[in-house]
Amino acid sequence: MDKKTELKCGTDGQSLCYQACNMNPAASYGEYKEKLAQYKAADAAKNMAADITLNEAEKKLDERMNRLREQMMNNKYVYAVRDASVQPMYYPPIHPFYDAKQHLLADKDTPEHKLFDLFSQMPKGGNLHIHTSATLSVEAFVQLLEEFDTGKFSDNGAHDWAVYVLQKNQDGAVKNTLYLADSHKQPIPVSADYKRYSQLSSREKADLMSDLCFMDERKVIDTKYIWDAFNDCFSRVSSILNVKPFYFEYYVKSFKELIRDNIDYVEVRCGIPHFVDNNNSRFLPGQGEDQDTAEDYPFRTIYDAYQEAKRIRPDFTAKLIISGSRKKTPDIVKDEIKNVRMWMQTLPEDMPKNFIIGYDLVSEEDRGYKTDEYAEALYGSGCVESVPFYFHDGESCWADDDNIYSAFALGTRRIGHGLNLFRFPSMVDQMEKKGLALEVCPISNQLLRYTSDLRMHLIGEYINRGIPCVICSDDPMILGNPGLAYDFWDIYLAGLLGLKEIKKLILNSYLYSGMTEDEKQLKINVWSLKWDRFVSGAAQTTPDDV
Q1: DSSP symbol at 87
Q2: β-strands 4-9, 14-19: how paired?
Q3: 414-417 and 391-393 beta bridge pairing
Q4: 416 exposed, middle or buried (CB, 10 Å; 0-12, 13-18, 19+)?
């Protein structure tokens, strides 16, 4: 047993206690090998996926994926060589995702693309962390602008939709802000500051797309403060997403995009909608604020879009986590959560009783209210016991961001991001003991400058500690990572995970979701059949794998 030792410190004689090292080397090489195996086995037993046993087909697929990854790595030590004459291979996790994605899509006959194809085909379970204003890929979003502007959704002439683009910063709105006007409702004003989408040049359309997402270093590297650029992307689409017909079609496309990526469950962080008939009044100064359109239920539109999308995949399920902003005062959040409780308790009869599963506080932590500053108001609302929390917390590089403590004290069901969880040892222990899941968004963490090299992402540490993790996408329209295939692909390459960990990450998306136990079991049963079919086909080595 190691012995505690006391020493005196300097002139004040303060007693310092430490535990002297009593590690002796193994007596022989044979004993050394035994100790080595014991240490590795002890860590393996703590791994999040320790309860997963791969069958023979899964082992073959695991080996195939490993071979593809090793082809990409080649001699991995070349990445540390500074000699300019040595050209390292391109390894995606080292590079910003927008660059890695461009490299991936440039050549479909590469190991990285074969791996990506496997992740695309893989049934990936649920996406538990994705936001309403950035759910759809930017490519599909721009296509939707085109469709509205050219009359696809005119309802046989009932509407005369026109998409307008603000050409320069004006009245608090950033350049390339989008609006949807209907000339049947009000004459569309002519202004040099606005241009109709169909009248944009090719260069202007490319500029608009670039301003809607992080597709090049102009946003991710050249921006002084990344959250400013991030928030501008949301601002550009906020007005057009307030128009109910556009929001509906946006969400039909969003859910179908998730389905096409073999995702069968999603929990959307949904802001409280304030729908308008159109944005015409935005063009006319002094007309006052837009008024909400009367409706029977504020989340009816997204529910109807979900029902429309699931026609192509009846087993697809969507639920909502209502989101408030950390920019709002505690008193506003207090009233907001009372409304959330009311909405949860008064769902229309045709909606599932748990379509809304809880509440979250979103947006930037570093400049927003701390979770602790909301605690008194949350308890004052009387809703803490009746409304489950799914808090974004720990999305910060700063050591004094201790929102993790408040999230635990408030009984959060999961932690969104939790990037600085490692700073709080007792909370890491709590995550292990209580089985609290961590929503990990690798590409988001990289592009928002929290983890530039994904090989150093802490998901590897948390998995090894046995903390339940799930893979999520966060804001696909801005980040360029629709579905979950990109995030799984990038973190698989970066974290050197195996198929056991991938399988457990997928199962966790059901186990730690807001579904009922019966819903979880049904999802897992259906997913298991899909998984077995996928594995049996994907496990077969193709001639160009080696």
Answers
A1: -
A2: antiparallel
A3: parallel
A4: buried
Check if the beta carbon of residue 466 is closer than 8 Å to that of residue 50. yes
144: its two tokens: 């939707």
Residue positions counted in the chain: 546
How far is CA 462 from its chain centroid? Answer: 17
Place of tokens 């989008």: 178
Report the alpha-carbon distance of residue 93 to residue 366 in Å, rounded.
26
Percent pLDDT > 70 in the chain is: 92
Main-chain phi, psi angles of 362, to 5 degrees: -120, 180
Query: How many angstroms separate the CA atoms of 64 and 468, rounded?
Result: 26
Q: Which residues, including other chains, have CB under 8 Å from residue 383's CB and lie 6 or more apart?
A: 337, 338, 340, 341
- By the 8 A CB rule, do 242 and 234 touch? no
Nearest to 134 by CA among 533, 481, 487, 484: 481
Give phi and psi for 127, each to the nearest 5.
-110, 110
Q: What are the backbone dihedrals phi and psi of residue 53, each rounded to the nearest 5 degrees, phi first?
A: -120, 120
**pTM of this prediction?**
0.93
323 C-beta neighbours (distance < 10 Å), count: 23
Rounded-to-integer distance, Cα 523 and Cα 264, Å:
8
* Residue 191: partners with Cβ closer than 8 Å, 6 or more residues away: 283
12's tokens: 């004040």
Helix 138-149 × helix 244-260 angle, to 10°:
140
127 and 266 in contact (C-beta within 8 Å)? yes
3-state secondary structure of 45: helix
* Regions in the chain scoring below 50 on pLDDT: 1, 285-294
pLDDT digits (tens, 9 = 90+) for 57-94: 999 999 999 999 988 887 665 555 555 566 667 889 99
Per-residue pLDDT tens for 230-250?
A: 999 999 999 999 999 999 999
Site of tokens 């229309």:
348
Q: Which residues pair with 271 in a beta bridge?
A: 323
In a 13 Å sphere around the CA of 321, the CA atoms on its Cβ side amount to 27
CA distance linking residue 457 with residue 433, whole number of Å: 22
Instruction: Describe the crossing of helices 97-106 and 111-121 by its angle, rounded to 10 degrees.
Output: 100
Give the C-alpha separation, 340 to 322, whole Å: 7
- Domains detected in the chain: 126-274+299-529 (3.20.20.140)
Amino acid at 510: Y
Which two structure tokens, joined as six digits, stand for 339? 């409304």
Please answer whether residues 330 and 369 qualify as being in contact, where contact means their C-beta atoms are separated by less than 8 angstroms. yes
CA distances from 280 to 143, 149, 185, 188 (A): 22, 14, 8, 7
> Could you tell me which residues come within 8 angstroms of residue 506 by beta carbon, excluding any fewer than 6 positions away?
122, 123, 124, 125, 527, 531
276 by DSSP, 3-state: which? strand
Q: Specify the pLDDT at position 72.
A: 83
Q: Report CA 369 to chain centroid distance, whole Å.
A: 21
